[in-house]
Task: structure prediction
Amino acid sequence: MRVALATLLIGLALPAHALDLPLPEASEQTADILREADTIRLPSGPYADGTLPRLRLDGDIQSRAWRLPDRGLTTLQVLTPLREALEKAGWEVLFDCAAEECGGFDFRFNTPVLPAPAIFVDLFDYRYLLARRGMGAAAEHAMLMVSGAGGRGYVQATHVRPADMPDLPAAAPAQDSGAEVNGRAPLAETLRSQGHAVLGGLDFGSGAATLGPGPHDSLAALAELLLSRPEMRIALVGHTDAVGALDTNIELSRARAEAVRGLLIETHGVEGDRIEAHGIGFLSPRAPNDSDSGRDLNRRVEAVVISGF
Result:
């Protein structure tokens, strides 16, 4: 068995098989521990009547932890985009719970959480998630623990994969980092390969939910694709820069998604029940928010495939 322990800054290159999580900008990675060909037991249900159901898993076990910037996020606000990222990447959530419903103290101290100062867990305010990707001997498992202390949030991600599973090829960074898409063919290709795409040419000003005059080629391309596939359903997800409070930005980002949805329905004739609109504020940036160009990139709407494609 080999154990590697390091304190790293977020943003360093990860192994091709590492979990890719959209943590808030300026998060600091506090630990990265790899145990090769080892065993771990991850809770698969709540602690009740003196027992805790756990999965016994063998394989390569990577546990990483981060300290988040002080932005006043609740544990649910931290966990939600992480869960969505896992589900987009093909993970199935097997179990999730929050503090008391998990089993409080007994659950926490029967869960393999890294020691302080890598992560601090508030016994009255934590969230746990267990997910699986694949089946049988090829199944991978992931555990997330989200909590906080002293006004700072903490996240631990533990990834268990079969010891003989080959590394997956790394994704091409240009498209995965959120390159904007306009024409129907590039849009269809991106949605098919990645499940989501940034809609190009949507000129939102800072603090504004109203689209500029256009033309909005990406919306025309998306409408054409939707009209050619009547079974296809999508979600529009709005994003903002980091100017202002999170709650305000979540409302603004949803309003941006609703504005795009309205144009697709009213201008292009797409049925409204095929398009959802959501907003996640500044929780999933494309670029740092410390420059005008970075903030411009972060003000956007993405199309996410739900079904039928």
In short: The longest helix spans residues 246-266.
